[in-house]
Amino acid sequence: MRTLLHMPLDAPSRLARLILAEKGLAVRLVETPPWQENAPLAAANPARAVPVLIDQPPTGGEIAVSPVEAIAEYLEEAYRGEPLLPATSAARAETRRLVAWFACKFETEVGGPLARQRIDARLKGRLRYDREAYEAGLQAMTWHLDYASWLLEQRSWLAGEKMTIADLAAAAQLSVNDYIGAVPWA
Predict the structure, then answer these.
(1) Among 166, 148, 176, 156, which Cα is nearest to 76's?
(2) 174 with 167: CB under 8 angstroms?
(3) How far apart are CA 73 and CA 92, in angstroms?
(4) In this structure, are residues 166 and 95 in contact, taking their beta carbons and an 8 Å threshold?
(5) Cα(64)–Cα(70) distance, rounded to whole angstroms?
(6) Are strands 28-31 and 3-6 parallel, antiparallel or unpaired?
(7) pTM of the model
(8) What is the pLDDT of residues 64-92, one digit of tens each?
């Protein structure tokens, strides 16, 4: 059975779950806090980061895939169905650029200061968080939403004319931040 080591309120984990759902692939979800000692996580990913997809590919054997960008590429190549990467190299490059944008820039400027700080602190038993960093994250959120809106004025979806992994990456980040009420939808 395909297994995903994940955390429910982790944006990369959410992205992996969205891709699996879009591909119509069943998966067993195993909540795996990376800050706790966890032998299965360490064995699957020495970096001890989630998500990690453990799969039995059609070619046989077992494979552990991480980080989420590698999971996305693996699932796209190993399992057909509706493609989540565009057909042309230029469109794939734009999709990958936007996935990196949300995984790195958005996470650093918004996800870390907002969701990661609040959610991870609570999960680890701390109730305090840096209010200044939180306010800076809210300001950065507005800028990122403006950029996404600009992209959507130019095209039907973030990376082009069809839904791609870039749209799922944005949705994963926004859903985590919406969970804590930090997305100014107006």
Answers:
(1) 166
(2) no
(3) 11
(4) yes
(5) 10
(6) parallel
(7) 0.91
(8) 999 999 999 999 999 988 899 999 999 99
- Under 8 Å CB-to-CB from 62, ≥6 apart: which residues? 54, 55, 56
Of residues 134, 167, 138, the one with CA closest to residue 151? 167
The confidence band for 40, taking pLDDT boundaries of 50, 70 and 90, is confident
**What's the pLDDT at 160?**
96
